[in-house]
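hey
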């Protein structure tokens, strides 16, 4: 059984209390490692050292900071196979997916911000011959970075990299459900010569460890990715303390398919956008709206394709879908399938837990599930399920589908399928989402602003947005006469 340690002041350390939590392998339904059940004391220790490390780290040149981030990225690349295996075991995702998406993106995040900071300049205005205005952008201090379990190292590094590149020091908490790659990452930071105290990684429960990071008076920056309910609690704590807050929250993303789309492309990408990572990507489309004239054909061919999605051992090459992340999460997803049936939905395929044989006999597997016959306003179509469950509904007009798409409390992502350019622009303009993909899905350019509208979040990550968030601007105005 591998014990996970906290990473504080450049060292791997046990939690002060000596208490640990079980960490499960979701494909086997078994505890396979222990993680620190850290409390306020561990968080205070980490914030103390991060505060002490701040002057030196922020005083380094951007090249020196970037070199260290790039070195960590080199080690991620070197350990690609090991990290991908660890991510798959910890999360239940197919190893193939961890190898092709999660780990390469973690390294890309580090490299992107190691170099982005070199190009980050602030505004200067010389509007007349008397006054010169310029702006400085300085790092703020200790950033608290909290991430979820669905894309563990991918989203963890997406916060840490810009925070560190901008010159802040960091106290970070990965999800207690998927802590392993963050632990391995802490070892890589030590190897890469990350100065002591610059990055500190504390493991533990959200309500205890996470809450202690948010409540601490010396974390003026909070960057959080997770559920909308957790986001509300974090905002309630951080807002009266006037912390800078970035919240990346839940979604209930619409996938709008017009009859004039490239049918085959829309169909195969929609299967992927429904079930990739077991539907546990905040950007997965979970409500598919199909123009009525192609609705029957789409449902039939969609179900045919879903039938071929192999649910299996995440470590097998042929597996398309692995385990969902935990037993409570599996129960939650199954309870939504029950709700859908009660609301009058017809399960076209799936709808049940899958029992595999051998090593995965006790794992948390759910069949990819397609539901039709529901109204856009029912709970199944309004609440985030975050699992391998999609609904398909017909529509007749553009106005109607835009109103369905915008009918939830969320506004994270949307996908539009049409070959009509004018229609694509019109609909993209009207759908309230932080990102709209037209005839594609999950294409992420790290330079663009990323985040959600409405209850999907506050603020944006990515590109300059993250570097703006992790710095404080100051306008200096000089009278030259
Ligand atoms: P979660 O909100 O339960 O937990 C996220 C993180 O917050 C974990 O590290 C957890 O320990 C911590 N946490 C929990 N309570 C806390 C508290 N009171 N104070 C501080 N930290 C606390 O979310 P989850 O179940 O891990 O992740 C799934 C959710 O994340 C889904 O809603 C999904 O849509 C969302 N998500 C959003 C994005 C995005 O970019 N918008 C990306 C990925 C996931």
């Amino acid at each position: 059984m591998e014990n996970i340690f906290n990473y504080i002041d450049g060292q791997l350390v046990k939690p002060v209390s000596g208490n640990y939590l079980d960490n499960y392998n979701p494909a086997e339904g078994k505890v396979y490692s222990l993680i620190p059940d850290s409390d306020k004391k561990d968080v205070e220790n980490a914030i103390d050292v991060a505060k002490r490390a701040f002057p030196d780290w922020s005083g380094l040149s951007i090249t020196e900071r970037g070199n260290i981030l790039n070195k960590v990225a080199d080690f991620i690349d070197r350990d690609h196979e090991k990290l991908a295996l660890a991510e798959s075991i910890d999360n239940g995702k197919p190893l193939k997916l961890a190898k092709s998406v999660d780990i390469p993106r973690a390294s890309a995040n580090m490299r992107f911000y190691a170099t982005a900071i070199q190009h980050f300049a602030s505004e200067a205005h010389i509007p007349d011959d008397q006054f010169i205005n310029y702006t400085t952008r300085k790092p703020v201090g200790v950033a608290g970075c909290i991430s979820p379990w669905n894309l563990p190292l991918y989203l963890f590094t997406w916060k840490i990299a810009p925070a560190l590149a901008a010159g802040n020091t960091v106290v970070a908490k990965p999800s207690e459900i998927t802590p392993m790659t963050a632990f391995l990452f802490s070892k890589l930071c030590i190897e890469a010569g990350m100065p002591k105290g610059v990055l500190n990684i504390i493991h533990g429960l959200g309500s205890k460890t996470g809450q202690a990071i948010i409540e601490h008076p010396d974390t003026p920056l909070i960057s959080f990715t997770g559920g909308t309910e957790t986001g509300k609690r974090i905002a309630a704590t951080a807002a009266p303390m006037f912390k800078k807050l970035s919240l990346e929250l839940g979604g209930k993303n619409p996938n709008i398919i017009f009859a004039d789309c490239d049918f085959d492309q829309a169909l195969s990408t929609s299967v992927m956008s429904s079930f990739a990572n077991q539907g546990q990507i905040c950007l997965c489309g979970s409500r598919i709206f199909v123009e009525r004239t192609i609705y029957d054909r789409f449902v039939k061919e969609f179900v045919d394709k879903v039938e071929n999605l192999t649910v299996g051992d995440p470590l097998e090459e042929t597996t398309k879908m692995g385990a969902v992340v935990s037993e409570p999460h599996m129960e939650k997803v199954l309870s939504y399938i029950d709700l859908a049936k009660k609301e009058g939905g017809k399960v076209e395929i799936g709808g049940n837990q899958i029992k595999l044989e051998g090593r995965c006999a006790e794992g948390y597997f759910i069949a990819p599930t397609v539901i039709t016959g529901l109204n856009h306003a029912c709970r199944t179509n309004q609440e985030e399920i975050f699992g391998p469950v999609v609904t398909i509904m017909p529509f007749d007009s553009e106005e109607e589908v835009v109103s369905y798409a915008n009918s939830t409390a969320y506004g994270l992502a949307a996908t539009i399928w049409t070959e009509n350019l004018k229609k694509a622009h019109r609909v993209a303009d009207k759908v309230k989402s932080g990102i709209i993909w037209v005839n594609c899905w999950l294409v992420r350019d790290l330079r663009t602003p990323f985040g959600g509208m409405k209850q999907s979040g506050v603020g944006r990550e990515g590109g300059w947005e993250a570097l703006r968030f992790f710095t404080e601007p100051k306008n200096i105005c000089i009278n030259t006469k």
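The chain has two domains: 2-249+456-479, 253-445. Residues 146-150, 155, 173, 175-176, 206-207, 210-211, 214, 225-227, 230, 233-234, 248-251, 282, 384, 386, 412, 452, 457 surround nicotinamide-adenine-dinucleotide (CB under 6 Å).
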